[in-house]
Amino acid sequence: MKKFLSILGTNSDYSTNRILLQFIQKHFADQADIEIFEIKHLPAFNKPEDKTAPQEVQKLADKIREADGVIISSPEYNHSVPAILKSTLEWLSYTNQALIDKPVMLTGASYGRLGSSRAQSHLRQMLDAPELKARIMPSSEFLIGYSLQAFDDNGTLKDQQKIEELEQIFNDFIHFVDITNQLVNANETHQKQAANFSWETN
């Protein structure tokens, strides 16, 4: 059974993205062990001179490394991702590069009609940065629009078509994880490039 880490990309106490990840965790329990990680307790990024991550950030990095793949669910704020998610990615990129070559699936729920489409687009760009270099599953946007009305009282998606769409994407992600984790030849090169990367000299 696969082991996935799902990252809730917001510090909101009430978030439909949390409900979405809880649904994914429950719905696919027979296919994967999925842990939900809350980033709301992580400190705001503050560039450390010694590149040492705070304890909570290092805990997240360790969980990412132990997982077969990562699922990130993000809302959309002002056409982009929440500040706390960007801060988390900055910690990971600057201190430990835990996401390098890690298979990643993107999901998102938003109150508006378009879901989190623009946030996911920005997130893809960020995850391709030299010190992140995650392996994002292509052509796999899963978007929940009007998310306040999307779930019933038990946290289950009401729209059966959206459930079927999610099932197809999740099954594709399992195959994507298998394929990606076989492509290990470039991993050492990416790690060295990230470790030696400097915006001041590039």
From TrEMBL:
GO MF, one example: oxidoreductase activity
InterPro entries: Flavoprotein-like_sf (IPR029039), FMN_Rdtase-like_dom (IPR005025), NAD(P)H-dep_reductase (IPR050712)
Uppermost EC category: oxidoreductase
Pfam families noted in UniProt: FMN_red (PF03358)
Enzyme Commission code(s) on record: 1.-.-.-
Keywords: Oxidoreductase
Segments forming domain NADPH-dependent FMN reductase-like: 3-146
SUPFAM superfamilies for this protein: Flavoproteins
Similarity comment: Belongs to the azoreductase type 2 family.
Protein name listed in UniProt: NADPH-dependent FMN reductase
Organism: Oceanobacillus aidingensis
Highest classification ranks of the organism: Bacteria, Bacillati, Bacillota, Bacilli, Bacillales
